[in-house]
Structure of NADP-dependent glyceraldehyde-3-phosphate dehydrogenase:
Amino acid sequence: DGDVYKYYADGEWKNSSSGKSVAIINPTTRKTQYKVQACTQEEVNKVMDSAKTAQKSWAKTPLWKRAELLHKAAAILKEHKAPIAECLVKEIAKPAKDAVTEVVRSGDLVSYTAEEGVRILGEGKFLVSDSFPGNQRTKYCLSSKIPLGVILAIPPFNYPVNLAVSKIAPALIAGNSLVLKPPTQGAVSALHMVHCFHLAGFPKGLISCVTGKGSEIGDFLTMHPGVNCISFTGGDTGIAISKKAGMIPLQMELGGKDACIVLEDADLDLVAANIIKGGFSYSGQRCTAVKVILVMESVADVLVEKVKEKVAKLTVGAPEDDCDITPVVSESSANFIEGLVKDAKEKGAKFCQEYKRDGNLIWPLLLDNVRPDMRIAWEEPFGPVLPVIRINSVEEGIHHCNASNFGLQGCVFTKDVNKAILISDAMETGTVQINSAPARGPDHFPFQGLKDSGIGSQGVTNSINMMTKMKTTVINLP
Ligand code: G3H
């Protein structure tokens, strides 16, 4: 009971001097599963100091050596997929198989980033002056990419391992040091992942992981003068961070209300399969989940029936049993989802299944005939509840999609590829998928949100570039 996971600083596992801990509640049992250290601001200061020192010599470490260490960490991570996945199951109720997939995907991401890094960072630019009017060929300009310094990484609960390494690997290959603040639900999975980097033998202080209460160290971290870049994935907190952060680059991904536009000529079996995968995997707790279906009235009855049949087959229960639908991350999250469901009920949505909840477990629910005056038409439930809005024209669908404050991804289903491209152009989202559900991966694809969905672009290449600056030397010839 007294066991509290240590935090990681200066290449060592440490107890916080606060003597306090933060409890991690298992979403399934709703009992305390683990405890982590509640780090103090003083400890954050120390971590920042050593991150700064470690970064100076890391930046001078040859690129191929940095890559070698990352490949080593990736292999160790994959070797330890079972114990890390077990933590994901207990901390965030991720279905057992998906938990393993998250760790394997993370190992692949680290390796890919190492390879991509040696290529793109191994290349610079050479310019001569006489291409600009009025100049002779007397200036040679050499440019290359240099690291930013200390990167602060804040991943969300739904991918505490994968969305941590998607920040750690590009930061390190580019010659930065990294401070990780994991989400409370998912902190122990993240600490295990960090241990794999520890085993790989990175220099002391280059990577650290501080755990604790957002109220105590959250703002302190994001406003810390030692931080040179913040990479954040999560909810509204990101908007608050962006207002407080100083003059540093920000990379943010902040949720979405991904629309699925279904045209009359769509392959409805394909659509139904993608709605199930897109809307209900990890119980809808993905920023890229399908969060509203906008279907042409003439095919709506058939589509809703097909989705209903598939919803009936989803297994509901414990993540250990690898059920499709598992408890949502917290009681407050379940209460929030229930609020959206009640609002839809009062305003006359048609329930395709009975609403059922047991603790944090919410049964999958499809709501038909949703109208724009219902909260569920606009808000993201981050749970297994999916609204269907019937539309009479494609323009109506595009209008609904673009009226959202979010703009992460969207998808359109039609056999007419010309129409699909025009719709994609009209949708104000960072990505549009044609004939498939939204998704971030493959992880080297660019990934970005418009409007309240984010700042900057992710994906392996973009993240490496974002965590660097151009440095130029000009040789002036006599
Ligand atoms: O939750 C946000 C993630 O970036 C979504 O990733 O599309 O691989 O589930 P995913």
User: Anything to note?
Assistant: The mean pLDDT is 98. The first strand starts at residue 7 and ends at 9.
